Amino acid sequence: MVGLIDSWRRLGLWILPRSLWSFGIALAAGATFACYMVAADSLFFRDAIPASIVELTAKTSAFQRIVLFTPFAIADDLIFRLGAMSAVSWVLVLIAGKRDWCFWAAILVTALIIYPLAHYSYLAGLEPSLASVMREIMLHGGAGILWGYLYWRFGLLAAICGHVGAHLVLEPLMSLLI
Questions:
Q1: Max CA-CA distance within the chain?
Q2: Where in the sequence is the domain holding 162, given as residue range(s)?
Q3: Quick one: how far is CA 102 from the chain centroid?
Q4: 131, exposed or middle or buried, with CB in 10 Å at 0-12, 13-18, 19+?
């Protein structure tokens, strides 16, 4: 296990947080992003919120949704940050050397290409409109970019903390919105 963690560090990515401050930064980033998501849905994307989200929010409590989404958030970060983003970073660093643009490219490819391809069935079920496309890019794409950045700069556990922290704020606020 130690060898695996060391190989990630040599790549320029961290599994464990660099410091305890990483958790505070990640929680603050996640909470802020959750507020942004609810504000965007309230002000710009109200008509583009998927019916499945409206129904789930109406039928379940915020606590139930937090319990539901926490394992998915952790799995997403393991699959898309630790797996996909690390793999893309590794290839780019192998080709170009350890440069910041390699990590930014890996973050963007993972958030804006790999993640949507993996969630094609969800995306295919959305009402096709400019608003729904913009909502997915601005909210889910933006979240993927933030979680990728947290992983790169503060470690995988910080990214997971930020992602779960976002749901701790998002779900109660969604109850107020819907």
A1: 50
A2: 14-177
A3: 19
A4: middle
User: Tens digits of per-residue pLDDT, 100-142?
Assistant: 999 999 999 999 999 999 999 998 888 889 999 999 999 999 9
Q: Give the list of residues 6+ apart from residue 23 with CB closer than 8 angstroms, or none.
A: 17, 157, 158, 161
Q: With contact defined as beta carbons under 8 Å apart, do 114 and 80 qualify? A: yes
DSSP codes joined into one string, 31-80: HHHHHHHHHHHHHT-GGGS-HHHHHHHHHS-HHHHHHHHHHHHHHHIIII
Q: Are the CB atoms for 46 and 174 separated by under 8 Å?
A: no
Mean pLDDT of 59-73: 97
In a domain, 37, yes or no: yes
Q: For residues 142 and 33, is the Cβ–Cβ distance under 8 A?
A: yes
| Whole-prediction pTM | 0.93
| Residue 2 falls inside a structural domain | no
Q: How far apart are alpha carbons 160 and 8 in whole angstroms?
A: 17
Count of residues in the chain: 178
Any domain includes 7:
no
Phi, psi of 60 (to 5 degrees): -130, 155
- Pick from 70, 94, 57, 76: nearest CA to 140: 76
Across the chain, mean pLDDT equals: 93
Total domains in the fold of the chain: 1
